[in-house]
Amino acid sequence: MTTLFANAKLVDPVTDSTTEGWLLAQEGRIAATGTGAPPKAPAGSTVIDCTGACLAPGIVDLGVKVGEPGERHKESFKTAGKAAAAGGVTTMVIRPDTLTPIDSPETLEFVMRRGTETTPVHIAAMATLTRSRAGREMSEIGFLKDAGAVAFTDGDHVLTDPRVLARCFTYARSLGALVIGHVQDPGLSGGGCITSGKFATLRGLPGVPPMAERLGLERDLALVEMTGARYHADQITTSVALPALRRAKDAGLDVTAGISIHHLTLNTLDIGDYRTFFKVKPPLRHEEDRLEMVSALREGLIDILCSMHTPQDEESKRLPFEEAAAGAVGLETLLPAALRLFHSGDLTLPALFRAMAMNPAKRLGLDAGTLTLGAPADLVLFDPHAPFVLDRFKLHSKSKNTPFDGARMQGRVRGTWVAGLRVFE
Fold it and tell me: What CATH number does residue 13 fall under?
């Protein structure tokens, strides 16, 4: 299990650099790196000539939905694992919003065992904050954390009772557990399917005002200030929410924020003539908001970039826009879509992998996301300039609901390694 990667461009989010060099992986970990010509390969090792392609830490995708248990017809661990490996994702952090929610140690143990047995990549699991995501009774956070849950969230079921949420925050703080919130005020966002504005009016669709996100975030941050909890906002997508996030960070609160690749590279006009593959939650935003989010990610105000992989079957998407299910697959499209920001000059490669690999691993306490000596040899080798046209039927995911179907993209994964073992070629 010794592999020498030669003639690579090493993308290091720790040093914020891209350098031509080599990397030696031994016994599942990074044993050495260097610039220039590689050393003589150890006896019996495998030599990979990268021919100038980029070698980066494997992506840690925070917020992947897998259909098990309950919705295997949408996505199984087997198909999700293949999609992750093909997309350069070496750790899937799965969401608990399954048909049978992950709200007990037994369900968590089943999910972890099932994922470990059937996927070639690492699995980390989140658990629900309240039982059945109903917002009434706190989950067994202590037992779930002991069983391996890396964070707690009710997903897009926003907890409406601030007293219950405060109790959850207080208990989570006492255990050092991370709480992840979906910052949308349900009173303003309920029933909406598109960001409010002129385009929504022209299409005759019920809108969601951007202020719904700010109200949801302000409430959660106030409770974080009161309880001292560790908190992560799963998706910040509007410019009106950024000042509250900045104030919280400046005040020293233990707060981070994320965004999905769809909100960072698409806007509400992409919906066009009611194209339901572009229906996500929260809805796609105006172009001005998208540009503000790119700037926020570049400066580090937004910390994490993820796919928010949400598989939906054809039957739930082939409906009128207002009735169609929200969500899009993203495990395989996260990297090439993110490279749009690199090719446009908005973000460097180290900045992208800081948001996709290093920061999520650090926030969740996972040993991953860097090229430092001794780190796990979870790696992705990719050509950022390789062009292709995306065909959704060639995706490994069981569901094919991607907004990038037919899109011209740049950036192909040439290989993925997990603990030094090649899992995709």
Answer: 2.30.40.10
Of the candidates 365, 368, 372, 346, the residue with the CA atom closest to the CA atom of residue 417: 368
CB count within 10 Å of CB 147 equals: 17
Which pLDDT tens digit goes with each residue over 319-360?
999 999 999 999 999 999 999 999 999 999 999 999 999 999
- Cα angle 280, 188, 292 (rounded to 5 degrees) comes to 55
Q: Note whether 24 and 87 are same-domain residues.
A: no
Q: Is residue 122 part of a domain?
A: yes
Question: Do 315 and 185 share a structural domain?
Answer: yes
Mark whether 273 and 331 lie in a shared domain.
Answer: yes
What's the domain count of the chain? Answer: 2
CB atoms within 10 A of CB 240: 16
Q: How far is CA 415 from CA 120, 195, 206, 233, 382, in A?
A: 13, 38, 44, 32, 7
- 171 sits in which H/E element: helix 162-175
Measure CA 385 to chain center: 23
| Domain range enclosing 45 | 2-54+378-385+406-424
Q: Burial letters for 53-69: b for 16+ Cβ neighbours within 10 Å, e otherwise?
A: bbbbbbbbbbbbbbbbe
The answer for 27, left when phi > 0, alpha when psi is -120 to 50, beta otherwise, is left
pTM, full prediction: 0.96
